[in-house]
Amino acid sequence: MRYVDEYRDPTRVMQLIETLNKRAPLLDYDAQHPLQIMEVCGGHTHAIFRFGLDQLLPDNIDFIHGPGCPVCVLPMGRIDSCIEIARHPEVIFCTFGDAIRVPGRQGSLMQAKAQGADVRVVYSPMDALTLARLNPHRKVVFFALGFETTMPATAITLQQAKAQQVTNFFFFCQHITLIPTLRSLLSQPDNRIDAFLAPGHVSMVIGTAAYEFIPRHFRRPLVVAGFEPMDLLQGVLMLVEQKIKQQSRVENQYKRVVPDEGNLLAQQAMREVFCLRGASEWRGLGVIAESGVQLTEAYQSYDAEVRFRPQQQQVSDDPRARCGDVLTGRCKPHQCPMFGKGCNPQNAFGALMVSSEGACAAWYQYRSQEVNDEIN
């Protein structure tokens, strides 16, 4: 398949690994203190484990898993607010499949569905808009979540709803932005991040210039990379070369998809529909300033929180789980005491085990046998 097979070619992959093995000794890092590269995106995390890339790297290069999975950072209180809205008898509550099993204090949306709430899985906000048109006597609420990757689809759907004068359609907005998150991570004095692999799909929307503050203010190199083995390894090699030369700059490995300026039409739609919410809570990370968005005044009538006024709840994470430490790269998923015991994909304790992009789910799927061997 064009644009896939050539980026998974085993011969080329091993050539890149060989090059990395030759260049790695020139790094000022060793096996005890390796170069810590944070892959921000959960899609990167799963690709790394799926193709075993972490096991092919030299000993002095290590991946740490970042918070770039929007389902994984869903606060429990926001899930509880969704459940409160979904229990209204006139409501059809629409969500992506990943979010339906994320636990809140009051259970999950799946459990609410089992108890009688009309909760439905959709594949896009346009599906929810279609439901609203087909059910004019019901109130259809779409759970809008995700980084800048999914924000344009939400924005365009809202524009269409307004143009079509659909009045029974609402959005529960849990969109969050990537840049304040990275700034927050780097501002923590005990962060272990030496370099970043930035997600290609978010970057396709926001462009590469948005990351310039990272090398400028924090002296960390960053490479925007795609999701295939060749993409990721080329991204790692580009970071290694910067480190060897003691440079810090933004580079774009994913030029076949990501223009440096991003998607200008998507950005325009987002500016029309969204404005900054201010401080937003992240599961495992606490409150991050200017990281969330809400609907602009022109679209307030579509805001589910304005329409249904759910109770605003802040619920503390269970201290037994180390979700926050995993999200910030302070520990690996299998180092959490709940991993594979009280927390597994069938009975998830935290969102990182629920989401298809969660780091804990990736470890469980691809590395759980190794963990069992260590324990035994």
TrEMBL record:
<keyword id="KW-0408">Iron</keyword>
<dbReference type="InterPro" id="IPR042243">
    <property type="entry name" value="HypD_1"/>
</dbReference>
<dbReference type="InterPro" id="IPR002780">
    <property type="entry name" value="Hyd_form_HypD"/>
</dbReference>
<dbReference type="GO" id="GO:0070025">
    <property type="term" value="F:carbon monoxide binding"/>
</dbReference>
<comment type="similarity">
    <text>Belongs to the HypD family.</text>
</comment>
<dbReference type="GO" id="GO:0051539">
    <property type="term" value="F:4 iron, 4 sulfur cluster binding"/>
</dbReference>
<keyword id="KW-0614">Plasmid</keyword>
<dbReference type="InterPro" id="IPR042244">
    <property type="entry name" value="HypD_2_sf"/>
</dbReference>
<protein>
    <recommendedName>
        <fullName>Hydrogenase maturation factor</fullName>
    </recommendedName>
</protein>
<dbReference type="GO" id="GO:0051604">
    <property type="term" value="P:protein maturation"/>
</dbReference>
<dbReference type="Pfam" id="PF01924">
    <property type="entry name" value="HypD"/>
</dbReference>
<dbReference type="GO" id="GO:0005506">
    <property type="term" value="F:iron ion binding"/>
</dbReference>
<keyword id="KW-0479">Metal-binding</keyword>
